[in-house]
Amino acid sequence: MRTSMLTSIVRRSSTTGASYVSRRGFASGSAPERKVAVLGAAGGIGQPLSLLMKLNPLVSSLSLYDIAGTPGVAADVSHINTRSEVVGFAGEEQLGKALEGADVVIIPAGVPRKPGMTRDDLFNINAGIVKSLCTAIAKYCPNALVNMISNPVNSTVPIAAEVFKKAGTYDEKKLFGVTMLDVVRAKTFYAGKAKVNVAEVNLPVVGGHAGITILPLFSQATPKANLSNEEIVALTKRTQDGGTEVVEAKAGKGSATLSMAYAGAIFADACLKGLNGVPDVVECAFVQSNVTELPFFASKVRLGKNGVEEVLGLGPLNDYEKQGLEALKPELLSSIEKGIKFAKEN
Ligand SMILES: NC(=O)C1=CN([C@@H]2O[C@H](COP(=O)(O)OP(=O)(O)OC[C@H]3O[C@@H](n4cnc5c(N)ncnc54)[C@H](O)[C@@H]3O)[C@@H](O)[C@H]2O)C=CC1
Ligand SMILES: O=C([O-])CC(=O)C(=O)O
């Protein structure tokens, strides 16, 4: 039951399209011990993400940390009869224990947007939160893979990199900005327009994670469909504005939480599979990159035993996508530089 539940989740979404069970590389029950820590676990994303990680049989230890509220979330989730042991940690004095021995740390800590705000408007509060959490990661679990969800991702990932550099623990293979929700949205919107089975849809989304920096490559989407230029432009815009669509619909009660939890769980599962040696695990993520002249960029990434095994190129772009790529670079670079400057000065 638990395996079939997760199998259906993962099978529908994996970039490589293969099923969870057949690609694990080991029989059920013999997966290695893996500790996953969720920082911000009592929040809108944190709670459903903790639930989904509890359903993942690759996790043996689930550590739920927040500044408050985690004992309740942990007690609740811990009653689910799946493999992992769940422990809740509340308050900064417990952060070290929450992180010790973690293989993967997922960070959905920080404030979400309200209508009328950009992701960059979150910078002033979230930059400090991310900086302090990453300082603790450098101290207590310097080898963990870090999945950064907190916005603005285009700046929080460079902040994390600088914090790790200062601490002497930076490994570019282990730091990921989670852009999976952009891929999830692009797949859903494309399937609806192209009238194809959403479970079979595959396409990369590259660039960054804010407005025009989100660049879905519909020319590479499979199954192929004969969509007009106008339809592709509309799909691109809807993908770029997907977060705002949810912020407006929630009308002041926050941003995407459930779809983000799903996307975060899929990405963390891909990281765990990579760590466990499953071959050909490929997902999009915002990572240190040579794909363009920008120091960080989201593209397809092959995950392996050390995190990023290979940052894959963009593949062929059509003229519309080439224009989108050039147009996003100044904004993305300035968000990256803002993050680096903050981390250097604070
Ligand atoms: N990467 C992506 O695609 C997406 C990113 N996000 C971002 O995720 C973040 C969280 O969103 P929500 O869960 O909706 O917000 P929320 O406000 O519901 O939850 C955030 C949680 O973080 C906790 N927190 C605050 N400071 C903390 C600290 N120093 N240490 C640990 N926990 C701390 C809060 O107590 C709260 O429980 C936001 O920045 C949001 O913009 C949201 C959706 C998609
Ligand atoms: O839009 C937001 O503020 C949250 C987010 O990053 C998304 O839903 O893509």
Automatic annotation (TrEMBL):
Entry EC no(s): 1.1.1.37
GO MF annotation, one: L-malate dehydrogenase (NAD+) activity
Reactions catalysed: (S)-malate + NAD(+) = oxaloacetate + NADH + H(+)
Binding-site residues for NAD(+), renumbered to this chain: G40, A41, A42, G43, G44, I45, G46, D66, N126, I149, S150, N151, M260
Residues annotated for substrate binding in this entry: R113, R119, N151, R185
GO cellular component annotations of the record: mitochondrial matrix
Top EC group: oxidoreductase
One Pfam family per UniProt: Ldh_1_N
UniProt-annotated catalytic positions: H209 (proton acceptor)
Keywords: Mitochondrion, NAD, Oxidoreductase, Transit peptide, Tricarboxylic acid cycle
Residue ranges occupied by any Lactate/malate dehydrogenase C-terminal domain in the UniProt entry: 179-342
Keyword Nucleotide-binding set for record: no
Origin: domain of life: Eukaryota
InterPro entries from the UniProt entry: L-lactate/malate_DH (IPR001557), Lactate/malate_DH_C (IPR022383), Lactate/malate_DH_N (IPR001236), Lactate_DH/Glyco_Ohase_4_C (IPR015955), Malate_DH_AS (IPR001252), Malate_DH_type1 (IPR010097), NAD(P)-bd_dom_sf (IPR036291)
Localization of this protein: Mitochondrion matrix
GO biological process, one term: tricarboxylic acid cycle
All copies of domain Lactate/malate dehydrogenase N-terminal, residue ranges: 35-177
Family, per entry: Belongs to the LDH/MDH superfamily. MDH type 1 family.
Self-association state and partner proteins as the record states: Homodimer.
Protein name: Malate dehydrogenase
